[in-house]
Design a protein that fits this description.
Elements: H1 3-13, H2 20-33, H3 36-44, H4 57-72, H5 81-87, E1 111-112, E2 115-116, H6 118-128, H7 137-151, H8 156-172, E3 175-177, H9 178-187, H10 198-206, E4 207-211, E5 214-221, E6 244-251, E7 254-258, H11 260-284, E8 288-290, H12 292-295, E9 299-302, E10 314-320, H13 325-331, E11 342-347, H14 349-352, H15 357-365, E12 372-376, H16 377-391
Parallel strand pairs: 10-11, 11-12
Antiparallel strand pairs: 1-2, 3-7, 4-7, 5-6, 8-9, 9-10
This protein binds zinc ion (ZN).
Residues 221, 223-224, 226, 235, 237, 240, 242 line the site of zinc ion.
């Protein structure tokens, strides 16, 4: 093939072939769709297989893009699927095929401990958010949470209160029991057309049950409360510095553990949100609105007590804890409903302190979120407390 015809073929494959983030997102979406047991079987296969049957389309598309990239770079030997699986356990910056990614992303891995990493889940989510066919666990969980909040309210403000309570439950309880479920059903009794409480449907979607009776001792992390199977040293939750601890959970006959997608999209990012809420609540009280507007923003402050966003001095913030600054920057949007005077994109402290992270984030945002100030978690908390004391 001549260079010209090769270039023409490349254009047919994709106009954005040079965008390696798309490749990484497709691979991540593929990994997300591969069942964990399939994954384990592939890892334990002694000889690399060239068979592509059964691999998700997203994965094949990602590998395809790598092939074209390899051809484009003049590489004689194309990586096999097994090669690429192997690369997924190495930092992106160390792949044999150099990827065009920003510096702060070079240390990220798609697979950790034989499973899709938090970064892979994040990248997959951005890819699949554009795919109307994608049935995302966290999306359905979010819809059920909204329905539960809505059907158990008879006025607008109550919907928001319910939402905050249910969302807070997910952050407080990576592990729950049938006693928690019963308490939720008493608190949120509204039933769907099948006679089942909405809250039960939401709960059973967000959690997987495990048989238990009486008191069960669990190994959990004392920082984030996530279960630590096999008592490993570190918990792996982004930004968590906790350590292994024993926790007694009371149950009648069932324990419930948050599904991975729910943990990664509601519980784990919620830890940074909760740190902000806890730090400023004593100073702001009722003038703080967690997840204002059913999550239009993660938190809003009404310094003048007007009760209406846009009237008086309001601040609003999205709190983010993303592994990839570039993917966050490309996908970040400010919700137009949040017409606050000051608007913030608050970055979890451990990310904010990562070298190059903020520069890469702002580079990727490329001025699209005009008027949104990028700040670290600690600086944001200090600024809110300062403003609260100025306003008295
Ligand atoms: Zn932890």
């Amino acid at each position: 093939m001549t260079d010209a015809s090769r270039a023409a073929r490349l254009m047919q494959v994709s106009a954005d072939l040079s965008d390696d983030y798309m490749t990484v997102q497709l691979l991540a979406a593929g990994l997300a769709r591969i069942q964990l047991d399939q994954l384990a079987a592939m890892w334990s296969t002694p000889s690399p297989s060239t068979k592509t049957v059964g691999l998700p389309p997203a994965w094949n598309a990602g590998v395809n893009r790598l092939w074209w990239r390899a051809l484009e770079g003049g590489t004689a030997q194309l990586p096999t699927h097994m090669d690429v699986f192997g690369w997924c356990s190495r930092p992106l910056g160390q792949w044999p095929l150099a990827l065009g990614i920003t510096d702060s992303d070079r240390g990220l891995l798609l697979v950790e401990d034989g499973r899709p990493s938090a970064f892979a889940d994040e990248a997959a989510r951005f890819a699949m958010a554009k795919d109307p066919e994608a049935e995302l666990v966290e999306n359905h969980s979010f819809e059920l949470l909204m329905s539960t909040a809505d059907r158990n309210a008879d006025r607008e403000a109550q919907v928001q209160e319910n939402y905050v309570e249910l969302r807070g439950f997910l952050i407080d309880k990576p592990v729950a029991s049938d006693l928690d479920l019963m308490a939720l059903m008493r608190r949120f009794p509204a039933k769907n057309t099948h006679g089942q409480p909405w809250v039960k449907e939401w709960f059973l979607h967000a959690y997987q049950h495990r048989p238990a009776s009486g008191t069960t001792e669990l190994d959990v992390c004392d920082g984030c409360d996530n279960p630590l199977p096999g008592r490993r040293g570190h918990c792996g939750t982004p930004g968590c510095g906790g350590k292994a601890a024993r926790r007694a959970v009371e149950a009648m006959s069932e324990l419930y553990v948050q599904r991975r997608a729910v943990r990664r999209f509601f519980h784990d990012p919620g830890l940074a949100e909760r740190r902000v809420f806890d730090a400023v609540r004593p100073a702001l009280g009722e003038r703080m609105y967690p997840w204002w507007g059913m999550d239009a923003v993660d938190v809003a402050f009404d310094f003048d007590g007007t009760g209406r966003m846009g009237e008086g001095e309001w601040w609003a913030a999205d709190v983010k804890n993303h592994a990839s600054a570039t993917l966050l920057g490309r996908n970040f949007r400010w919700d137009r409903r949040a017409e606050a005077r000051r608007r913030f994109l608050v970055i979890a402290q451990h990310r904010f302190e990562t070298r190059g992270y903020v520069d890469d984030l702002e580079g990727a945002m490329d001025g699209r979120a005009q008027g949104v100030e990028v700040v670290g978690e600690d600086d944001f908390i200090a600024a809110v407390l300062r403003r609260a004391s100025e306003r008295g």
